[in-house]
Amino acid sequence: MDVAALSILRELGERGSVTAVARATHRSPSAISQQLKTLQRQLGAELVRRVGRGVELTDAGRALAASSVRIDTAIAEAETTWRAFQGGLSGRVEVALFASAAELLVPGLLDRMAAYPDVELHLVDLDVGQEEFAPRTADHDLVVGHRSDEVTSAQSAGLVVVPLLREPLDVALPLDHRLAALPTVTVADVIGEPWVGVPEGYPLDRVLRTMSLQSDVRAEVVHRTVHLPLIENLVATGHGVALLPRTSSSQRAPGRFLLKPLSDMRAGRRIEALLRPERAARGVVRLALDALVAEAGAPR
């Protein structure tokens, strides 16, 4: 079998169209189609079928695509072994992170990776809903994503998932808020306030929805943005309250806004590294992953 064609089969199953696979692999759609036709002719079986404007894999296609993951991983392991035998690891690693994780992790990550001058670290901004981080592993070596506590990790999607840290979520209040003197607040204390939130589907919004369900009161979100410093500014100037990650926001809170833990709900978000198995087998990717894990565990 053509190993490259098997990899294309896997990409097609994940991306859903020949055009998307061609774009991702820097080939023409006709070249992709020709490889798939050749593979089907060699095997004498239908591997792909058209569905609407896209395509999907048949049962046979899915079985071969799963085999492709193991083959690609074995090849990556062999390449890593050979590079180490030749005297060292070198190459490029692309790491995609959302903004507040980058703020926490990137300075220390760069310091740690400076010990490996032959490894080029390329950083990409990626701020999407929590369900969208796992699919982006198709395009980046390593994706740093986050999810609210109650959401299952992406391991069920066949990815390698490495926990980095858990950040408690606190309620941010203006300095002169009526609850300012309390050491903690309850969901009932704050759910009726105007909220400054993140887009729907993001981890902080999922927690706010859980608060609404727990109290049976719908939270009124008056502003939404992905930019945490803007949320902090809006809270500080009295435009609402917000859920904010404690570690990320505590350094900017003094003299501007208050962070109050919830006493009747365990609210938090989990920051994780997500990557495909064959990328995790690459030595240079493992170096970056180890550096991320070490930085996440550093005292703050």
TrEMBL record:
<feature type="domain" description="HTH lysR-type">
    <location>
        <begin position="1"/>
        <end position="58"/>
    </location>
</feature>
<comment type="similarity">
    <text>Belongs to the LysR transcriptional regulatory family.</text>
</comment>
<keyword id="KW-0804">Transcription</keyword>
<dbReference type="InterPro" id="IPR036390">
    <property type="entry name" value="WH_DNA-bd_sf"/>
</dbReference>
<dbReference type="InterPro" id="IPR005119">
    <property type="entry name" value="LysR_subst-bd"/>
</dbReference>
<dbReference type="InterPro" id="IPR000847">
    <property type="entry name" value="LysR_HTH_N"/>
</dbReference>
<protein>
    <submittedName>
        <fullName>LysR family transcriptional regulator</fullName>
    </submittedName>
</protein>
<keyword id="KW-0805">Transcription regulation</keyword>
<dbReference type="Pfam" id="PF03466">
    <property type="entry name" value="LysR_substrate"/>
</dbReference>
<dbReference type="Pfam" id="PF00126">
    <property type="entry name" value="HTH_1"/>
</dbReference>
<dbReference type="InterPro" id="IPR036388">
    <property type="entry name" value="WH-like_DNA-bd_sf"/>
</dbReference>
<keyword id="KW-0238">DNA-binding</keyword>
